[in-house]
Amino acid sequence: MSDPRKPGLGADSHEIYTRRKGRNLAMLACLGGVVLMIFAVTIVKLSAGIDMRGFDHTFETVPGADQ
User: Rounded CA gap, 20 and 22, in Å?
Assistant: First the structure.
């Protein structure tokens, strides 16, 4: 009795799956790079002591400015 799962004859052996895996890994690297870049910018801004305020749809005067 022969084994029906011979190497090279399954659905996973087609070359399109190899190319798709390569593209998926490239997309993973790009998305990971973007996430790391945003994380790094956030860390640098927080460590530099830059005042980060959320926009809450109100007008705020600058301290010390003449009106």
Answer: 5
- Tell me the chain's radius of gyration from C-alpha atoms: 27
In 1-67, DSSP assigns E strands to: none
Q: How confident is the model at residue 42 (pLDDT cuts 50, 70, 90)?
A: confident
Confidence of residue 1 (pLDDT cuts 50, 70, 90): very low
Burial of 61 (0-12, 13-18, 19+ CB in 10 A): exposed
User: ∠ at Cα 46 (36, 48), nearest 5°?
Assistant: 115
Buried b (16+ CB within 10 A) or exposed e, 12-26: eeeeeeeeeeeeeee
Tokens of 42: 């956030």
Q: Can you tell me which residue has the tokens 């790079």?
A: 33
At 36, the amino acid letter reads: L
